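Deviation from plan, reported transparently: pyridoxal-5'-phosphate complex.
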Amino acid sequence: MIQPAAHALLDLQALIHNLAKIRSVAPRSKIMAVIKANGYGHGAVTVARALVDADAFAVARVDEGVALREAGIPQRIAVLQGFINSEELALHSVYDLEPIVHCPSQVDILESANLDKPVKVWLKLDSGMHRLGLNADVFDACHARLSQCRAVHQPPFMITHLANADNVADPVTERQLDLFGGRVAGLPGERSIANSAGLLAWENALAEWVRPGLALYGVSPFPNRTAEQDGLKPVMTLRTRLIAIKQLNAGDAVGYGGDWVCQRPTLMGVAAIGYGDGYPRHAHSGTPVLVRGQRVSLIGRVSMDMITLDLSDCPSAEVGDEVTLWGDGLPVEEIAQHADTIPYVLLCNVTPRVKRIPKL
Ligand SMILES: *Cc1c(COP(=O)(O)O)cnc(C)c1O
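Because the crystal trials were delayed, the predicted structure below was used instead.
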């Protein structure tokens, strides 16, 4: 078999470890593992099959839920965007998916539906994020309607989403928690509030269900903390190989645009990965890369299939050496900072040509 140059190793033991770590932080909560966007780029089915202990999964869209059912995933599955018409609602019923109801038009569709089997629904309150969710003044009426609705498994569950939980100094989160707590007080049914940052930083956000995404993949949701500090281990390690090495002279310009000019005689290496694989085109010169486990710097612009490295401090490097872009030994959070982005984006953007290689 041909070993692909650029590949993403998936440490499934780390994934299982991170789930257990989250359970220890939220011991009284059930865990809805968020695996939207192809499991944050790791592979939704691979992640779901590895997380046999997850109590439920969450995806963004109904087709993502259908794909998990067709792959035989048995756990409960919530669909964060729910449905926008009766056909999509019917899919939820047929595939036993649990829509989030966030807009009054969805309540209308449920009331006029004729389903063989009622659906479990999560009614979403907009507690301050101002994206999806019902305004507080219509939440009660929609809840009352769903509580009478034949198409709905009783009682409906309740959900909200935190906008700023990664900023532990921001008073907005307490306001969101108060608003949600006040609205749902006295109503029957399970509740869910916290994403990764919410469950790690806000004890009051732990409800019957927590909804970790990023933390499961071993990445910190906080700008000033490392995943290691929260006891999380990276799941994805993005790797490739050195395919060329050569000596350049002081004054030589490297790559497209010639932005990088060698200040000294430079041993330059070319690694087989680029933005066509999802490596960020905006990674600055100086972004760390591991060669033979040693840190070297990216120099020059990222190309579609290649990056160029300064190997002057790693003179023993040879063509064929393993190159790590992020993951084991090099946190993706750090690469995101060097590329003016967030780790979520880097993980999601790994393209299909990068083979995912799970290891147990
Ligand atoms: C994506 C998402 C999550 C998970 O967020 P993380 O920050 O990755 O933990 C939880 N809830 C909702 C509604 C989401 O859209």
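The chain has a mean pLDDT of 97. We consider this an acceptable substitute for the interim report.
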